[in-house]
Amino acid sequence: MVTPFTKDGEVDYKQAAELAVKLVDDGCDGLVVTGTTGETSTLTDEENLGMFRAVKEAVGGRAAIIAGTGTNDTAHSVHLSQEAAKLGVDGLLLVTPYYNKPSQAGVRAHFEAIASATELPVMLYDIPGRSSIQIAPETMIGLASHPNIVAVKDAKADFAAATRVMAETDLLFYSGTTD
After folding, report:
1. Which residues contact 133 (CB under 8 A, 6 or more apart)?
2. How does 67-84 read in b/e, with b if 16+ C-beta sit within 10 Å?
3. Is the domain of 54 the same as that of 116?
4. Domain range enclosing 12
5. pLDDT 10s per residue in the chain (179 long)?
6. Do 63 and 129 lie in a common domain?
7. N or C: which end of the chain has fewer CB within 10 A?
8. How many folded domains does the chain comprise?
9. Are 159 and 109 within one domain?
């Protein structure tokens, strides 16, 4: 879901809560809060956590709240994920560590560290068009052995890779891009 702002550029938590209620009333059974569309990388930690809190209070129990807590900094992502867990979100969306362009071993270590930091289910977010790095099929297949890593949000439209990952793992697979 989008992150609404006031005319002064402040996050509008009241409007976020109202939007969450509208989305759930219209049939959504889960909401990604501060994902790409929610402008996560432009928000402060306080604003991200405020969004998780506002949406959880508005529709928690009626819809799954998936918190976008992935950053390019593993320790920072762990911190945001742990704070989101304390607020009672239902899962985490973790983007690839953008800008740094780690090796696939580095990508795997990044995701495993974050996934091990809470008990929450994790959805990996593979969006190389924005992050400049992809999660290779071999890396996804390896990450599928982590008990908290349960899903992939794929925005690269590599159907051969997606088919391979789906055939070789039990990961839930969501695919789509606006490109």
Report:
1. 96, 97, 98, 101, 102, 107
2. bbbbbbebeebbbbbebb
3. no
4. 1-68
5. 999 999 999 999 999 999 999 999 999 999 999 988 888 888 999 999 999 999 999 999 999 999 999 999 999 999 999 999 999 999 999 999 988 899 999 999 999 999 999 999 999 999 887 888 999 999 999 999 999 999 999 988 888 999 999 999 999 999 876 65
6. no
7. C
8. 2
9. yes
Give the C-alpha separation, 172 to 149, whole Å: 10
Q: Which residues are part of the catalytic machinery?
A: 125, 153
* CA 84 – CA 81 distance, rounded (Å): 5
Q: What is the DSSP letter of 42?
A: G
Tokens at residue 3, please? Answer: 């992150």
Distance CA 43, CA 31 (A): 18
Q: Which of 115, 120, 130, 124 is nearest to 172 (CA)?
A: 124
Give the residues across from 124 on adjacent strands: 94, 152
